[in-house]
Amino acid sequence: MKFYFAPMEGITGYIYRSAYHTYFGGIDKYFSPFIAPNQNRSFNSKELNDILPEHNEGMVLVPQILTNRQEDFIRTARDLKGLGYKEVNLNLGCPSRTVVAKNRGSGFLACPKELDQFLEDVFSSLDLSISIKTRIGRDDPGEFYRLIEIYNKYPLKELIIHPRIQRDYYKNQPNLQVFADAWKLSRNPVCYNGDLFTPDDLEGFIRQFPETDTVMLGRGILSDPGLICRMKKRELPEKQRYREFHDAVYGEYQKVLFGEKTVLFKMKELWSYMGSSFTNSGKYVKKIRKCEKLAAYESIVEDLFQEQEIWHEK
Ligand SMILES: Cc1cc2nc3c(=O)[nH]c(=O)nc-3n(C[C@H](O)[C@H](O)[C@H](O)COP(=O)(O)O)c2cc1C
């Protein structure tokens, strides 16, 4: 099984990715949170920083682009090729209202004609691999059957499917019926993404789809950075590894972010997921959420690591 790390805007930037790769790893491909180009520029400085090769050493990274304008996609993909990238990914999944209102992300799925033209222009202009990360529709899962006909016209590097519609955001269950059809209908290699949070989830998925050879995971890894090790039945990472991982992310954020509040905002978001890696972490995470000073934050984290253990459910 190949494992991909899902792009997660605001969280899995290069600092998180590099620390994860150093202390846990086991990932075949990382995807960058989306780059949103406009007419004037391919990426802003934050986006460029995220995908600079020197910030992503030793890992396979695929930059993701969010746009519905072929000119912007083509220019940005060429710029990324200039930086050494061999594959770029098109975001057809973002459910955010402001993105969807502009017919981008999962909003683009409701404009099949325009999407088809976009892909035709993109594939005829670019000589690098292009993959797609898609939901199964904007308003209705039935939209997928028209979309797969479009995807099948182009030689995608792979089609990563998160089987929800826009309105689901991350709620409700992934639609495995439509995914099963997608698996049968797709001419391109398919990767599954959605709600694989434990080794049991993965085993259940494999029982249902024994031929799938690639899965992408997001929130599961944020909640337990040791999840891939557990899924691969490797030695379970010790608490010290989580500590070093935390300290690396925290140290790097302090170097590049301005002000205690900004660093704390990032660490609070990280703990909103990673708290569940520990036994009885509720009260510590609550205190972290209320924290306003780095010194207080450090002392709570110290207590958590001293007093609690890593929680490895099956
Ligand atoms: C906070 C957050 C940010 C996300 N950012 C992106 C993004 O930039 N690009 C993208 O394609 N998907 C993004 N996603 C979706 C994830 O990549 C993934 O498809 C989703 O979380 C489902 O996978 P999971 O159940 O393994 O988490 C984001 C999800 C979350 C929760």
TrEMBL record:
Broadest EC class assigned to this enzyme: oxidoreductase
GO molecular function terms listed in the Swiss-Prot or TrEMBL record: flavin adenine dinucleotide binding; RNA binding; tRNA dihydrouridine synthase activity
Entry EC no(s): 1.3.1.-
Keywords in alphabetical order: Flavoprotein, FMN, NADP, Nucleotide-binding, Oxidoreductase, tRNA processing
Active site per UniProt: 94 (proton donor)
Superkingdom classification of source: Bacteria
Residue ranges constituting the DUS-like FMN-binding domain according to the UniProt record: 5-293
Cofactors required: FMN
Protein task: Catalyzes the synthesis of 5,6-dihydrouridine (D), a modified base found in the D-loop of most tRNAs, via the reduction of the C5-C6 double bond in target uridines.
Family listed: Belongs to the dus family.
Name this protein carries in UniProt: tRNA-dihydrouridine synthase
